[in-house]
Amino acid sequence: MRKIYSHLILLAGLFFMMAPLFVILMSSTHQTQTLQQVGLQWWPGDYGIENYSRVISFERGYFDEITPLLMLVNSLIIAIGVASLTTMLSLLAAYALVFFDIKFKNAIFWLILATLLFPLESRFIATYQITVDLGLINTHLGIILPVLAAALGTFFFRQYFLTLPKELIEAATLDGAGPLRFLRDIILPLSLPRAGAIFVIAFMVGWNQYLWPLMISTDDSLYTLVRGIRLIGQESGPGMALIVITVLPPFVLLLIFQRWFFSSLAER
């Protein structure tokens, strides 16, 4: 009986998590008029092919340059840039805090964690001014750089490095390995599962950005899929179809990295 209750709880949790995606998928097969009059749908409709075809042939902008392919490319550039740089910077910051003799490194670590209290939205004005001064308006780099300060990644890597046996450092020192070789040959291979988890989380952060790209880019060539949802119409059939397409890349990435992602979360 206890096992039955456990499975029922898991099924209920699965339903609440997957229900919004299921409703969006079903709604993407209905006519826009139906969605506006009746609301979101739980059953498939007859306009799926038409809605997805309209999304594929979608063109907007002054020169009709806003297309699904352009938005997909921009989203991938931003998300992969954010994920790669965030993972690398988090690992290097944690490596320096754990394996180097730095004064006040505990205070520095707590200052890094304090950035969690100040998300990007709370520092839009200052960040925008700095971006303007650096000449990064209407550039991919201007969208990517302000999102790289990820204290969570530094925290995960630091906590993992603290659990590594000191014999590793002693063995590397006796072998004549310097800091770079120690990082390359020992730390990086051991950190791959956690790096994969941080990469997935940072990818989703970069992929789901809306407000900052909206502020920093006025060029139609920098539109992302998330911004395109508003452009095509959030309550329309094609809009629901575009939402489904927008969800697919992070979902595929999570499937690819799921082994590393869940193993890194389960390790103590």
Topology, please?
Elements: H1 2-27, H2 32-38, H3 48-56, H4 68-99, H5 105-114, H6 124-133, H7 140-144, H8 151-162, H9 166-174, H10 179-207, H11 211-216, H12 225-232, H13 237-256, H14 258-266
Features:
mainly alpha; MetI-like fold; globular; 268 residues
Can you describe this structure?
This protein is mainly alpha-helical and 268 residues long. The protein has 2 domains: 1-46, no CATH class; 57-266, MetI-like fold. Helices cover 72% and strands 0% of the residues. Helix 1 packs across helix 13 (237-256) and helix 3 crosses helix 13 (237-256). The longest helix is centred in the first third of the chain and has 32 residues, at 68-99.
Q: What is the CATH superfamily label of the largest domain?
A: MetI-like
Poorly predicted tracts of residues = none
CATH fold descriptor of the largest domain: MetI-like fold
The major sheet is characterized as: none
CATH architecture classification of the largest domain: Orthogonal Bundle
The whole-angstrom Rg is 23 Å
Q: Which percent bin holds the helix content?
A: over 70%
Instruction: Indicate the mean pLDDT.
Output: 81
Task: Compute the separation of the termini in Å.
Answer: 31 Å
Strand content range: under 5%
- The number of helices is 14
